[in-house]
Design brief:
By secondary structure, the protein is of the alpha/beta class. The chain is built from 11 helices and 10 strands.
Length: 263
Amino acid sequence: MVESTVSQHVQVNVADRIMRITLARPEKKNALTNPMYEALAAALERAESDPEVRVVVLEGSGDMFTAGNDLADFAAVAAGKASRDDMKAFTFLQALARGQKPYVAAVHGLAVGIGVTMLMHFDLVFVAEDAKLSAPFVNLAVVPEAASSWLIPARIGHARAFAMFALGESIDGRTAAALGLANAAVPATEVHAKALAAAKTLAAKPAGALRETKKLMRDAAAIAALMTRESEIFGARLQTPEAAEAFQAFAERRAPDFSKISG
């Protein structure tokens, strides 16, 4: 079966029992918008229900994976111009966390914020050696999401995870693989082929055994509960004076000043 469909900024292609989802907003560094989250969630739900799909691969177009959530959406909530209920990232993350089929990610260039935290729900992650992964949530006066406040420290330790979240420190692809955030780091020109080759290998495996193995390796209830808690705190944080200052400073291309804002 070969099928190709395109929605705005999210491309979906199904062939050889593999669904390839491509973030296709390169002019905006593949920054994720609410419509993109909805399209991604719909693609994952379709993959889970379609017996012709054995494996899902997610990748980015252009020169990077994703710059994370489009900050204009966060800024709108922080400024009171939109409701936090309008944010659709959680819909995508829920679909990702519920997934029972194997998910493979190909990461090149930048992976920022949710571009890193979502990787905790992929079964195989391949990164470019020179990729840069960062999760600067505190810099934006918010908190981590996707159950990453538990899943990332569980993989790389509290100290390194706190530095990523609170200091905004980035790590390169080689370091990500060495720490266990990725399976392997390869030259950028090879990362998509590497992920696709792994997906083809998985597609030939017994689907039932893969599904049950994945379920055994994940505490789905604990992940879902933490994701809900994180989402509630994240949404509340977006409506704080700290967040308003963070996003206003970003819009004005200046460093934020939190010195006169109490926590």
